[in-house]
Design brief:
Two copies of one chain form a homodimer. By secondary structure, the first copy, chain A, is an alpha/beta fold. In chain A, 24% of the residues lie in helices and 24% in strands. Chains A, B: InterPro entries: DHFR-like_dom_sf (IPR024072), RibDG_C (IPR002734).
Chain lengths: 214, 214
């Protein structure tokens, strides 16, 4: 059982973008940041439900590994959407009726007390107000021997990294400079000392770095 | 003729280190940041004057390219040492009597008026108070068709990048997190739009990224 993180970041370390507008709610930067991943065969099949086409190289290998052996996920309230829709008691997340998790998802929120939300595909969102260690204990039990993913967002990932709880951190670095947003690397000086670090360049130019420990 | 930059940076973008002490004037971080480069055959031969040993892989290929076809260099006052020894009129730089430049080196300083310093190996330090464009015009003339290197430090490199004067930026990214220092990437949002970016991983784990334009 391992605790895993996968993120797409820019060369300057940003995992979020800031150029959203009402007319372009994702912004252009987000598309550029994740372009290599969303072009993969795995993303098309697993997230878009389209099994045709897509790239099959290094990016797709990491994309496929992302979905393997995950028994539970932990995410922050922002990633689930609670910051955008704090007063909507019926909010069920961004992902419609087929959220691509297929496992229990623990949503960390200070406004706990929401009832769990279950989907036919095995996804169940559970809401709790807990420190990283406590959330991880619950997720580990729910994962029943499989891995736990810390899904995001950046603040949530950084809190688990800072607490030393992550066994494998994979970042896909897109060689663009966003210049602003939330920086994954802030205040993580010396993180590498607990890990073996490996690097690989994809055909797309994305650099895949993995921090792994036994 | 191209304007070139080569820097070793950490995964979080720092090209300087901050852990210097009186007992350890370089600090430990600097050695870790440049370890793969200083291990190369090229560095040993060209900088240490020791033609034996050293690595001969990807890092060495970039190390050797660093020395090719440079006709003039531009550096900041800090890199030359003027900030450390502002009152020493006899200061001749950090490099002793064999500075590894073998060409004119234009040192940007607001306290101009220092006399040039010449060495038998072709290095000549010339001091001037000039904007990037003006310094580059002088260096380009001195280079007589060969390339001009912007040597450092980080502030000087960033001023040339921000002014759009750099044709080829090569960074060797060591996968360590320094967490503080001077960050190469600050305020360079969108830099990639003027360049083709290529990536390569060395045997050492260092990721070599090159921003190049015609």
């Amino acid at each position: 059982m391992a605790v895993r993180v996968d993120l797409n970041i820019s060369l300057d370390g940003y995992a979020t973008t800031t150029d959203q507008t009402p007319e372009n709610p994702f912004g252009e930067d987000w598309g550029r940041l994740v372009a290599a991943y969303t072009a993969t065969r795995t993303f098309r099949a697993r997230v878009l439900g389209d099994p045709s086409g897509g790239t099959t190289g290094v990016d797709d290998r990491y994309g496929a590994a992302y979905f393997e052996n995950i028994g539970a996920e932990i995410m922050g309230a922002g990633m689930f959407g609670l910051h955008n829709f704090p007063d909507d008691a019926d909010w069920r997340g961004w992902w419609g009726e087929e959220p691509p998790f297929h496992c229990p998802v623990f949503v960390l929120t200070h406004s706990a007390g929401r009832a769990p939300i279950s989907f036919d595909n095995g996804t169940e969102f559970r809401f709790l107000d807990a420190a990283p260690e406590e959330a991880l204990a619950l997720a580990t039990a729910a994962a029943a021997g499989a891995d736990v993913r810390i899904g995001g967002g950046v603040d949530t990932v950084r809190s688990f990294l800072a607490a030393g709880l992550v066994d494998r951190l994979h970042v896909g670095i897109t060689p663009i400079l966003l210049g602003r947003g939330k920086n994954l690397w802030a205040d993580l000086r010396g993180l590498e000392s607990d890990y073996a670090v490996t690097s690989e360049v994809a055909e797309s130019g994305v650099v895949h770095l993995t921090f792994a420990r036994d």
